[in-house]
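TASK: fixed-backbone design
INPUT:
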């Protein structure tokens, strides 16, 4: 076949392809290749025809042979790209990316529009594969080419915005280069916008700040972006809210931070971050109740802030709401995102605080949970304070050997640490070794005199010590007063002060004040509540007694606060108000249905009201629960007599007289 014939055969092949006669085209190409096996165009035409005849492997082979012959010719590369782009071609994305890369090289010095088209396709391919770094590098190259061509500012602005869209899902990938590309795109986009200030620009700035807040190490850039946005949009609260949360999370409470909280609250009094900031300010000022109130309110609006939950738990600990503090620590864990560096710092603090709260709850289940929390603290074994907490948790769980072992270790390795001596004191106190406990608590106080709990336990040690100290509780009083001065929220101390003034000093009025304070601090402290009510009655101050009882019964859920219902029911019974007495005594019985004395009192209330049948049932129930309650048996007989059931009444009277021959009311009956 001469040169002329080869050209004619190739022309026939091209015409056949144009007329979609692909098999015919293949015949012509094969004839050419018999003569010239390295003919570039023949291989390209075979690739084209085979692709159309759904013979992808043959097409790929032909294109690759053509590329081998002429690596810098466009046709074969374009054909291969078209082949790989077909929907039935799977698992060729990596190969397609290489083809696009080569096409970019070939188009770079020539057809710019085609270069842009291929560039867009390559970026789309990388994006589907979640290869964000390659997306960033390729798109930046496109923007650079546009800049060199002198593109308009508006076009470049749209390109930077497109880059943000492409990279916005990459923040989970933790790739520093991609992250920097995304932030660079944001900076260019906010600085190249036309309509400033304007709504689109404002939203773009918000997205930029939100993106920055995901990167814990970009604090300088974050603060700058917030201040820049505030300068442009002084009435928009968003940058201030982000700044406030940033200060909360970083634990920074400088003048700048406090000014930021104030400015935010002036702008929006209901802003979650602003109210959280106010709560932290209260915590610093030792206004713990206000801190709890503000932090709780702020967290209802902005719950995804682990540091704020931690501060709330801290404030709750200060007012001895230990169970609430545990719940707040649990919320803090929920809000903790990925375990990056700053979060790890918070995680350890939250775990330790949770363990402290659980230890203060002081039951075996809480102790087990405290041990589990302490085990999760990173580098816990090297922290003696954490070790002392573990010792206390073991003690609460009744594991004396483990607690003692930790105590001995701490005393030898950290003899100057107050917690080492305090742990030893708690162990001795639990074993009623009061003299050794006294020595340990004195050592702890010497090293940390401002800890109220140490004074409280030294006071308790003196309270329960030998007969001599029991007669003179002056030493205990001194320690209780010190503890109360150091921690005005420590309810148990006020309860013991009440015991001292009531039982030792005989000062009922002062005792009543201490019990009342103890009960105000801890509404679950029945001992203090009951004592405050009893002393108010003894002092003839029924108004105070009733106000305490009314407050408790109003808040009480069904089956709770038996003591308060019982006290108030008996008061109504004494003062001739049987209907109210019935209601309260029934409520007391819902809390404890097996209290025979309460059933007896309920019988009296029904009897006073003239409800004889229900009175009879109540007296019978009382004597069933406690057969020794002769009075209830007698009252049942008396009610039967009133109801005209004389035979039953006589039988019941005789039953009483068998047990108690000289029981006068029964003889009279």
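OUTPUT:
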């Amino acid at each position: 076949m001469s040169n002329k014939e080869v050209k004619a055969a190739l022309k026939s092949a091209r015409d056949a392809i144009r007329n979609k006669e692909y098999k015919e085209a293949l015949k012509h190409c094969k004839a050419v290749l018999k003569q010239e096996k390295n003919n570039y165009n023949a291989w390209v035409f075979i690739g084209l025809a085979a692709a159309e005849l759904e013979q992808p492997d043959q097409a790929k082979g032909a294109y690759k042979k053509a590329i081998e012959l002429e690596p810098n010719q466009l046709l074969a590369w374009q054909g291969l790209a078209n082949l790989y782009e077909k929907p039935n071609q799977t698992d060729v994305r990596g190969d397609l990316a290489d083809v696009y890369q080569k096409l970019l090289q070939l188009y770079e010095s020539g057809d710019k529009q085609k270069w842009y088209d291929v560039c867009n396709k390559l970026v789309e391919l990388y994006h589907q594969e979640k290869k964000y770094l390659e997306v960033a590098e390729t798109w930046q190259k496109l923007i650079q080419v546009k800049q060199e061509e002198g593109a308009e500012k508006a076009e470049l602005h749209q390109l930077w915005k497109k880059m943000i869209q492409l990279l916005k899902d990459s923040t989970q990938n933790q790739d520093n280069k991609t992250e920097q590309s995304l932030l660079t795109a944001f900076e260019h986009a906010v600085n190249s916008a036309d309509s400033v200030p304007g709504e689109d620009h404002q939203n773009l700035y918000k997205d930029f700040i939100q993106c920055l807040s995901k990167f814990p190490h970009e604090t300088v850039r974050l603060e700058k972006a917030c201040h820049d946005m505030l300068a442009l949009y002084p009435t928009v609260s968003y940058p201030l809210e982000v700044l406030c949360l940033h200060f909360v999370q970083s634990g920074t409470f400088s003048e700048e931070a406090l000014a930021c909280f104030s400015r935010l609250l002036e702008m929006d009094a209901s802003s979650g971050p602003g109210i959280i900031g106010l709560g932290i300010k209260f915590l610093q000022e030792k206004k713990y109740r206000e801190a709890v109130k503000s932090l709780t309110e702020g967290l209802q609006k902005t719950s995804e802030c682990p540091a704020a939950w931690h501060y709330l738990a801290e404030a709750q600990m200060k007012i001895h709401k230990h169970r609430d503090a545990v719940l707040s620590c649990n919320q803090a864990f929920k809000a903790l995102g990925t375990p990056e560096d700053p979060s790890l710092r918070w995680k350890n603090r939250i775990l330790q605080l949770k363990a402290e709260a659980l230890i203060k709850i002081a039951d075996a289940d809480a102790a087990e949970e405290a041990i589990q929390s302490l085990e999760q603290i990173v580098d816990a074994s090297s922290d003696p304070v954490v070790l002392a907490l573990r010792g206390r948790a073991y003690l609460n769980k009744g594991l004396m050997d483990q607690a003692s072992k930790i105590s001995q270790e701490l005393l030898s390795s950290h003899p100057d640490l107050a917690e080492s001596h305090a742990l030893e004191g708690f162990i001795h106190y639990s074993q009623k070794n009061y003299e050794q406990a006294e020595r340990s608590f004195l050592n702890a106080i010497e090293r940390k005199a401002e800890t109220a709990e140490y004074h409280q336990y030294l006071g308790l040690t003196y309270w329960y010590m030998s007969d001599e100290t029991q007669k003179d509780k002056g030493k205990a009083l001194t320690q209780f007063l010190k503890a109360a001065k150091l921690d005005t929220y420590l309810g148990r101390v006020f309860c013991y002060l009440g015991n001292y003034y009531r039982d030792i000093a005989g000062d009922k009025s002062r005792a009543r004040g201490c019990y009342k304070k103890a009960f105000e601090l801890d509404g679950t402290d029945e001992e203090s509540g009951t004592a405050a009510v009893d002393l108010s009655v003894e002092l003839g101050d029924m108004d105070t007694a009733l106000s305490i009882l009314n407050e408790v019964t109003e808040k009480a859920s069904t089956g709770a606060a038996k003591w308060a219902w019982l006290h108030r029911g008996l008061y109504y019974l004494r003062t001739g108000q049987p209907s109210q007495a019935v209601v309260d005594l029934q409520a007391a019985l819902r809390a404890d249905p097996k209290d025979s004395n309460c059933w007896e009192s309920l019988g009296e209330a029904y009897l006073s009201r003239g409800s004889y049948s229900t009175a009879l049932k109540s007296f019978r129930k009382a004597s069933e629960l406690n057969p020794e309650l002769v009075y209830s048996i007698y009252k049942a007989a008396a009610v039967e007599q009133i109801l005209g059931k004389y035979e039953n009444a006589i039988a019941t009277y005789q039953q009483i007289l068998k047990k108690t021959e000289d029981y006068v009311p029964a003889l009279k009956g």
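COMMENT: Residues 405-482 form a domain with the Serine Threonine Protein Phosphatase 5, Tetratricopeptide repeat fold (CATH 1.25.40.10).
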